[in-house]
Structure formats: structure tokens, C-alpha cells
Amino acid sequence: MTSTEPRVRPAASPRTKSARAIERAGAVIEIDLDAIALNWRKLSERVSHAARCAAVVKADAYGLGMDKVAPVLARAGCKTFFVASLEEGLALRALLPRAQIAVLNGLIMGTPADFAKGALLPILNDLGQVKQWQTYAARRGGTPAMLHLDTGMSRLGLSPGEIRQLAAQTAPLSGFTTSLIISHLACANEPAHPMNIEQLDRFRAALRKLPKTHASLAASSGIFLGADFHFDMVRAGAALYGINPSPGRPNPMKQVVQLKAKILQVRDVDRGESVGYGAAHRMDRPGRIATIAMGYADGWLRSSGHRGTARIAGKPAPVIGQISMDLVTLDVTGIDPEAVRPGAYADLLDERYGVDDAALAAQTIGYEILTSLGRRCGRVYRGGAT
């Protein structure tokens, strides 16, 4: 693994809207770049002394803007980044000319020459990709790559049979430098799950059969399973962005995202009146309803209808009725009318009600909440100064 300090190339962000555009937006996402950097430092300090902490910035840095997030992480000290696709890797290379960048989805995403031109490391996921890279690297003088071993996910990576075939070769990884061998834990967010130890043992056994190099097993939740899982590198992803890596326990990560939506209309409703599509909610008492400019077209998942809570002036405003494409209805009965007026904001994500809370209400995971948000929202970045 290279120790070269990643140089950050400044880039204007098309995601940053003018102040006037932010004022006109129905909803606004605020992203705390300093919190992301702080979370990376926390995770770096938690890993064993010999391990380094890489950053996963795939899916546009989990929907938060890779062009903003990656340079901040590089300035914080991160030297290795993981993306999913070749196109993500090329975009990141334009931002970080000297960083080590690995592409998780492997050579299927493009030709070996595409990866070499972008100085990107493909993560080889099957024997066919290994052979293809060996052939290419032999002409290039040992162009490096990474290797993915499947230890129990049955997803990407060399299967146990392919690992045995590779290990049986006289020179299994000849022709190029293998800078890192990785695997991925299936149940790391459940510390007591027996699969964690099973995969650890399988990974160690596979490493003993292959040429010695650096290794990586743990992503965000795996970091909290202890030093045995850290090896030479951990790959921090969701935890960087404030998602709790240890569900059921207090979140050790700092909240990164806040989301607020404008109140469009407020109305009084009588007992027995219906609210929203399908008349799915009926008032059991007289009350007041506020309709806000947020819906499933903005990533506020339809599955969170009838569940979840916004806040207005610090007071809870339960979501009632179904989530519409552009609108959410809140029960604001009992909240000060001065705070509940058209043009004022309802807080959907804040320090008290975070991404994991929204995920619970939507019966999903924080990853989906983050990567879904913000198709039409104004976007404000805080911190991240050089």
C-alpha cells in the first residue's frame, strides 16, 4: 500500500446551490463535513496500531456528495478510498490525484487499460479476472490490483473452490503485485453472531494459502468486533456518515446530516375526517394538520407513512397518513401556532432524531435513508475548511 500523501485537487461542486436557490427549496439538507472528518479520526483511533483506516465513498459518498466528502477525508489523513464502479473511481481520481483508489466491483466495469489509465486498483472477484489482470500486467510490468475472497457472503469474491484452485498453482498471483486481499463480513452488526468468527477463521485460513500481503476484513461494524478483525486495513463506510455501527447500543459516531422541510399549509380538521391517500388515517379527535414539502420523490420513503416523527420548535409532530410523492402530513395539534405556519420549517433529521431513527420508522436501514435523500432538496455544507 502506498504511503504517498494524497494531494487534493479543488473542484467546484455542482451540488452546491446558491443562497437564493436554498431559500426557494422545499427542503434543505445540511451536511456537517467536520463531523465526517471527526468520525474518520474516531475510527482510526479505534483500530489496532498496525491497521489503517480507509474510507468508502461509493454511491456519491452514501448520497452526501463525494466531491465534497472525499477531499475533507483526505485532508484529515485518509490515504485509501473504495468506490463501487469504474466511473466513480475516475471521478474520484480527478479530485484526489495521489490517493490510492480501489474499485469494489472489479474488472467487469471496464477494461484493464481503463483502470491503469486512471491509476485505479481493480478488486479481482473471480479467477477469470485474476487471469485477465495477469495477462495485462505482464505487459505492463506488474500493475498492482487487490483480491476479494468470499468467506460467507456468497456475493462477490473468489469462492472457496476458486481459492483452492488459486492456492494450488505454483505461482498463484504471479505477474502483478497484490496490494491487499479483502473479504466482507455478513453479520458484523450483530457482535454475538457465530458467522463473525466463522468468517474470521475462513479468512485466516485462506490467507495462509496465498502469498503474504496486506489484508482487510472489517467495514464499519466490523471495526467494533475487536482487534482480531482489523488486520492491516479497515474500510469505514456507513459510520463515517453518522450511521450507528453498533445497533442497539449508543451511537459512538457524530451526527452528520440534518434535514428540514418547509410547511406549505396548516389546517384544522374535525374528528372523523380522513388524511391523505386511501383515507388511511382518520382523526379520532379534532386537531391541526401541517403539510410539508417532502415526499418519496425526495427520498422520504413511502414505507414510513403512519410512523416517524418530525419536530417543530422542538416539539414532536407525528407523521400521519401515507407519504405522497411531494408531501408529508404531520399532526401539529398542541404546538404553538406561531411556530406552525406556512414558510416555517419542520425538522425531519436532527441531533435527537437521526438517520437510524428514520430508518426504523421506514422499516429499513440507515444506508437506504442516506442514499435516497435529496433529489430536489437544497444542500448546505458546513465546515470542511482546509
Chart the SSEs and their pairings:
Elements: H1 19-24, E1 27-32, H2 33-46, E2 52-56, H3 58-62, H4 66-76, E3 80-83, H5 86-95, E4 100-103, H6 112-117, E5 121-124, H7 127-140, E6 145-148, H8 160-168, E7 178-182, H9 194-209, E8 215-219, H10 220-223, E9 233-236, E10 257-269, E11 274-275, E12 281-282, E13 287-292, E14 309-312, E15 315-320, E16 328-331, E17 345-349, H11 355-361, H12 366-372, E18 378-382
Parallel strand pairs: 1-18, 2-3, 2-9, 3-4, 4-5, 5-6, 6-7, 7-8, 8-9
Antiparallel strand pairs: 1-10, 10-13, 10-17, 11-12, 13-16, 14-15, 15-16
Helix pairs in contact: 2-4, 11-12
Overview of this structure, please?
The chain is of the alpha/beta class and 386 residues long. The protein has two domains: 209 residues, TIM Barrel, CATH 3.20.20; 126 residues, Lyase, Ornithine Decarboxylase, Chain A, domain 1 (Beta Barrel), CATH 2.40.37.10. 28% of the residues lie in helices and 23% in strands. The strands form three sheets. Strands 1, 10, 13, 14, 15, 16, 17 and 18 form an eight-stranded mixed β-sheet that branches. Helix 7 links the parallel strand 5 and strand 6. Helix 2 packs across helix 4. The protein is elongated, with a radius of gyration of 24 Å. The relative contact order is 0.15. The N terminus is likely disordered.
